[in-house]
Amino acid sequence: MPANILNLSAYDVLRFEENEHDYHIDVEAVEAPTSCPHCQSGSLVGFGRREQMIKDLPMHGRRVGLYINTRRFRCRICTKTFYEALPEVDEKRLMTKRLAKWIGKQAIKRTFASIAEEVGCTEFTVRAVFNDYVNELEKTIRFETPKWMGIDEIHLIKPRGVIANIQNNTIVELLPNRDKETVAHFLHHLEGKERIQYVAMDMWTPYRDACREVIPQAVIVVDKFHVVRMANESLERVRKSLRKSLTPKQRRGLMHDRFVLLKRERDLNDEDRLNLDGWAKNYPELGEAYRLKEQFFAIYDAGSPNEAQAKYLQWQKSIPPEIAHAFTDIERAWGNWAMPILNYFNHPVTNAYTESLNSLIRVMNRLGRGYSFEALRAKILFAKGVHKHKLSRPKFERKPVNKRQAEPVTHGWAENFKSFWTGNSFARMVLKPPPRPKPYIPKSTENAEQEKNYGADISTLIRMIENGQL
């Protein structure tokens, strides 16, 4: 049995056994202690041994157990006894350091149960190792504070807060909930929060209150798509209110054509227009609801907040009384959030891309049933290869050539030398022309540029999960 089979130079391999599923390897530390850890005396005497079983990295598809013949010593000076320290062994649990690190990395993209089965430990142990690994990652990985921040939520058992970098299409944090206290706590401890310029959000009051309290300099912008979505929801209320007066066949037809009603008028084809005209003629209330929906979408074609507000007031006056109940939510939302909604027309930032992120998180949650929120958060934020990086400074460029240096010298001694040079062949053989002055190029004082980490790139996350890498 070669001594380096484990690739652990601190141990000698004594014996080796194997079965269908496991390797059992007896090992002993190469170097014995030379001093007492209590009094630092070097007068030691052996005082027995004990066997400790330590888990190590799986090999050849089999679990590995190291049986370490741990020596016990007694100090002749202070009379205290101690066991030798075991190199390469994790301080918290009976496994090697490299196994703990491997479990942490694997748990980012695999289930705890599968890792526990491969290693031969409990799922609880894998979870504990993973938590320690994530804590270490959070100490070493710092995401850049976004200047354009997006706050949204995703439902994973309960609503969770999502913090995104709008400019770079990345996610920088998943919060355990979307309460004001949680959001405010995150913002309060965010390094560089004073540089945040815009915050895009939906109409959730705790988000707004937390931002006004912690980052009052940031302009709050209500996400356009959360506002216009309410027009579709109002149209759906009108459609559903008509079902009671329809026959079963008509009800099925209206359910099928609901996708036509939700389309923008500019996207309708000839068949869609024919179906829409039929429903509008037979049910004028449905036609009016579609008109209101389209006119509400058209508000976002305005070029300024004042124009948008005028369009909204005109739209509000045109709501027929018989379907006014279906549009009360829009009127209430606009009344409570008018300024953040109108801020969009000066600062058109939006959380539209987070819809793809939300879909991604839902897929990951389905693939990993039983994951805790902490595990899912770590898989999103710290998966290898998902971070978007950028150099903090532009690439070093050469200094422009000095104009005076670039001009040919045509006066003084140089001109006389030139005429002598061209008229004397011997001089051309033994003399060399004066060197041309070279532009000064300063050397960079840094060997490497510092990179900025903008968080987990959404498109990369989608690609990795489609390829089965997460």
Layout of helices and strands:
Layout: E1 11-18, E2 22-29, E3 44-59, E4 62-75, E5 81-83, H1 97-107, H2 112-119, H3 123-140, E6 148-156, E7 158-165, E8 170-175, H4 180-188, E9 198-201, H5 205-214, E10 219-222, H6 224-241, H7 248-256, H8 258-262, H9 270-282, H10 284-298, H11 305-317, H12 328-336, H13 338-342, H14 354-367, H15 373-382, E11 387-391, H16 403-406, H17 413-423, H18 425-430, E12 451-457, H19 458-466
Parallel strand pairs: 2-4, 6-9, 9-10
Antiparallel strand pairs: 1-2, 3-4, 4-5, 6-7, 7-8, 8-12, 11-12
Helix pairs in contact: 1-3, 2-3, 3-15, 4-5, 6-10, 9-10, 14-19
Helix content: 40-55%
Mean pLDDT: 80
Structural class: alpha+beta
Number of helices: 19
Q: Tell me the β content.
A: 15-25%
N/C terminus separation = 38 Å
Quaternary structure of the protein = single chain
How do the strands line up in the largest sheet? 10-9-6-7-8-12-11
Poorly predicted parts: 409-414, 425-432, 439-449
Instruction: Based on Cα principal axes, name the global outline.
Output: elongated
Number of β-strand runs:
12
Based on CA atoms alone, the radius of gyration comes out at 35 Å
